[in-house]
Amino acid sequence: MRQTKTPPTAKKTAASRSPRKLPLQPRANATVSAILEAAAQILETEGFKAYTTNAIAERAGASIGSLYQYFPNKAALTQALIEREDSALGERLKTLLDRPSGIGLLRELLRIAVEHQLQRPALARLLDAEEARLPPRQSAQPLHALLMSILGRALGEARLAREPRLPQDLFAIVHGMVDAAGQHGEDDADALIVRIERAVWGYLRVDDDPAPR
User: Would the pTM of this model clear 0.90, i.e. be above it?
Assistant: First the structure.
């Protein structure tokens, strides 16, 4: 079988979004964490217009040289932010792996997804938009596989095989409703989850209350 090679331009693009070096010592880890959190705060409060490496370094209390030691540019910073959020979501999703299969599992998955997006809604929206603009990344594959595994146990692998667009539609319902709620300043996750469940149950054509809360 012929091996598919990555085009040089794709390799260059991926490299430009990769950290320049990995932090190995606790102090270096603390510096990187401070830089990422500063980037997140600027994004969610001031948007991409104020999202500069100088502003991020200043807010983090780090030198611009320290920032560039780990991140060659803003794209690499944004990539690291996306991966930080993915990692946090993935850790919560892993708690579902030993839960019973069925629609109750889907309810728990919806709650985790909603709470994750509502935790920092402005940041979530901006990172989602940026990820859609950037080329696909291999680091997203484990999270996608985990989501698909949980959906397969919740809805049944046979149904996913019959309706391949089902996960995409469910993600769109959740994202759309959560983003709208975030834009309107909603912070009541429980009330939002009830509305999202109604939309999802209607799409799936199941009873209004398919599983006990």
Answer: no
